[in-house]
């Protein structure tokens, strides 16, 4: 299933959820040992537990860091050392603790205008995509890791925003209704260009949003997320929707 009603992986607790997803990610990196493994990471608080876990045994020695390439699914358009920068958070928790070559890390630009930064990031993605002979005609990302807001937003695709209508550009600036910062976000077509789209969601406060998105509630931007390959929900029990009878 490659729509937002995708497959469910339910773990008993937040801790077992993060271990299950770290295990799954290691397995994905072994699928195509000859190729770079491309993953777009999410911001927010939920994935921080995962990023920390990836820097510890048994995972830190199982990931093929040298051939992994890291991207951002979205970021605040702030300097990388700003407290609200997703890249800054991931650098602190993950990149600064594992041997990923610096040239394999692709933060969203933090200088100039948000419009130009979006264009520049898209150019970076296209250059990588078109420059990789192994990639021809295949999805750009191996994994796109997404979170979910209680309002059904994901990445920086917020309800009612013009970016929800974007069907060609891969990266767009947007001004979310609630947050102080302009954002840059991958668009629906960019997220679709993934072998696996993963929603990582935990906590009882997200159960209602998960249920609405899996029921394809059009008011939730996450409902329109699709994948060129698989779409899997990694949930802890409290966030899991009631079993459909
Ligand atoms: C971000 C994320 C955003 C996040 C949700 C859930 O940049 O903040 O892309 O979409 O995944 O807001 O955030 P929590 O994990 O903190 O609940």
TrEMBL record:
Highest taxon above the source species: Bacteria
One Pfam entry name: Glucosamine_iso
InterPro entries listed in its UniProt record: 6-phosphogluconolactonase_DevB, 6PGL, Glc/Gal-6P_isomerase, NagB/RpiA_transferase-like
Top-level class of the enzyme under EC nomenclature: hydrolase
Pathway note: Carbohydrate degradation; pentose phosphate pathway; D-ribulose 5-phosphate from D-glucose 6-phosphate (oxidative stage): step 2/3
Reactions catalysed, as given in the entry: 6-phospho-D-glucono-1,5-lactone + H2O = 6-phospho-D-gluconate + H(+)
Record's keyword annotation contains Protein transport: no
EC code(s) of this entry: 3.1.1.31
Sorted UniProt keywords: Hydrolase
TM spans (from-to): none
Residue ranges annotated for the Glucosamine/galactosamine-6-phosphate isomerase domain, each copy included: 13-233
Biological role stated in the UniProt entry: Hydrolysis of 6-phosphogluconolactone to 6-phosphogluconate.
PANTHER family: 6-PHOSPHOGLUCONOLACTONASE
Family: Belongs to the glucosamine/galactosamine-6-phosphate isomerase family. 6-phosphogluconolactonase subfamily.
NCBIfam families linked to this entry: pgl
Protein name: 6-phosphogluconolactonase
Source organism per UniProt: Acetobacter oryzifermentans
Lineage: Bacteria, Pseudomonadati, Pseudomonadota, Alphaproteobacteria, Acetobacterales
